[in-house]
Amino acid sequence: MLSWRPRRPYALAVGLMSGTSLDGVDAAVVRFEGEGLGTTAELLHFHTQPYDEPLREALRRLCEPGAADVQDLCGMNAWLGGRFAEAARAAVSEAGLAMADIDFVSSHGQTVWHMPEPPANSPFLAPSTLQLGDLSVLAARTGVPAVGDFRPADMAHGGQGAPLVPYGDLVLLRHPDRGRLLQNIGGIGNCTVLPAGAGPDDVAGFDTGPGNMVIDRVVQRLTDGRLAYDADGALAAQGTAHEGLLAELLAHPYFVQPPPKSTGRELFGSDYAAELLARAESLGLSTADAVATATALTARSIADALRRFVLPHLRIDEVIVSGGGARNRTLMRMLAERLPEQRVADSGEFGLPGDAKEAVLFALLGYHFLLGIPNSLPSVTGASRAAVMGKLALP
Ligand SMILES: Nc1ncnc2c1ncn2[C@@H]1O[C@H](COP(=O)(O)OP(=O)(O)OP(=O)(O)O)[C@@H](O)[C@H]1O
Ligand SMILES: CC(=O)N[C@H]1[C@@H]2OC[C@@H](O2)[C@@H](O)[C@@H]1O[C@H](C)C(=O)O
After folding, report:
1. What does the entry list as the binding residues for ATP (predicted)?
2. What whole-number distance in Å separates Cα of residue 379 and Cα of residue 385?
């Protein structure tokens, strides 16, 4: 059992987030005070380091079952530990601090595969998830304790192992009188449902489906790689979503599957985008119309999930959006149009800038792990009990 306590009345941490978009690693320098639901977090500095194209390509390959090679997987795991340490050190130095001031780093890791419900084609496939970025390398290269590998503890108790962010949302963003839906739009879209006055047993959360992943892929393919994403939603703004194709896309069984549920590149990766592109081509859609359709798919799937699974049971006053998708103005407009009864706002308004939010919340998971506080939410993941999720490596 850990008996860790901060050496000062507060703790300083670096939270590291490397998401499913494979766009880079985010590092948040955070100051924590208090314990449990009384914890407060102050973001001192946010730093992001984009991945270059060869690294993205190498990671994409590792995310593909037929293409991934065990030698590459093994080497990348340790290599990324060093890459994450570099990001942590840069963030700390930019914050005007030294690594010696930092109590711990806490890392999400790079997901390469997430399999809460494995296919039945082999007796050896257990529910599992794999995040790369070796914690021992991270601890050695930063000189401070490194916490990470959170998801397996929840899965070991029968949970989905995702989404984990709702725990941090509960701690930092619950409101006594307002019902809130916190919607992150990263590669995948994931939401946290926080009823007014929510406690740990009242939180729900699930992955809504594609976030930017499908939009990015469609943009990359239709511009022959000239554009990596639809900056500010400019392309989508010039087009019109094709209602027929949209209806076909929204018929995917994931959207009607009730929570708890989580998804990723496995369902909404390049194969899914290739199908969308093939249908768009057969319908003769322009690039702008195809991108608008992919953008509407994300907006509608989020709004439909709210109507289908949340609003029949409770009141939601505010939809607070974070993640790179919050910068896509067309997506935000489409979302607000579908949700006329809620105020659709940016997470920055609530003291947690949308780009930094996940890195801050993974630092919080590490903080509570070190304090020995259960940091999972079985009401969200479907696990049989709460767990103190995380693993520790010492420098
Ligand atoms: N200015 C912008 N306009 C439109 N889209 C943007 C903009 N900036 C970022 N994005 C989108 O946001 C994506 C990155 O989002 P984010 O960093 O939140 O994802 P992630 O953390 O990797 O994903 P996840 O939360 O699913 O793990 C980019 O791939 C891009 O599609
Ligand atoms: C296995 C995995 O990495 N899942 C990610 C992914 O990206 C978004 C969505 O799918 C979410 O379930 C999760 O990340 C966030 C940070 C979470 O666990 O809350």
Report:
1. 19-26
2. 9
Phi and psi at 148, nearest 5°, equal 180, -160
Whether the per-residue pLDDT at 1 is higher than 80: the answer is no
Q: Which pairing describes strands 24-33 and 110-115: parallel, antiparallel, or unpaired?
A: unpaired
Q: What angle do CA 3, 5, 10 make, to 5 degrees?
A: 165
Instruction: Report CA 344 to chain centroid distance, whole Å.
Output: 19
Pocket test for ligand 1, best of 18, 20, 21 (most atoms within 8 A of CB): 21
β-pair type (204-210, 318-322): unpaired
Bridge partners of 202?
none
| Index of the ligand 2 atom closest to the CA of residue 114 | 1
7, HSE (Cβ side, Cα atoms, 13 Å): 7
Mean pLDDT of 43-47: 97
Cα gap 306→326, rounded to integer Å: 17
Q: How far is the CA of 16 from the CAs of 5, 22, 135, 148, 365, in angstroms?
A: 21, 13, 12, 9, 11
**Token duo for residue 161:** 């192992």
Ligand 2 pocket check for 20: Cβ under 6 Å: yes
pTM for this prediction:
0.93
Cβ neighbours of 111 (radius 10 Å): 23
Binding residue ranges: 19-26
* Confidence at residue 281, expressed as pLDDT on a 0 to 100 scale: 96
**Domains defined for the chain, CATH in brackets:** 11-163+356-393 (3.30.420.40), 175-350 (3.30.420.40)
Taking only the tens place, the pLDDT of each residue in 326-362 is 999 999 999 999 999 999 999 999 989 999 999 999 9
Q: Is 3 left (phi over 0), alpha (psi -120 to 50) or beta?
A: alpha
Atom of ligand 2 nearest to the CA of 188: 8
Distances (CA, A) of 200 to 154, 162, 168, 294: 15, 16, 11, 35
Binding residues for ATP are 19-26
- Average pLDDT (235-250) is 97
Report ipTM (2 d.p.). 0.95
Closest listed ligand to the CA of 19: 1
Instruction: Name the pairing type of β-strands 146-148 and 391-393.
Output: antiparallel
Residues 6+ apart with CB under 8 A from 53: none
Ligand 1 atom with least separation from CA of 323: 18
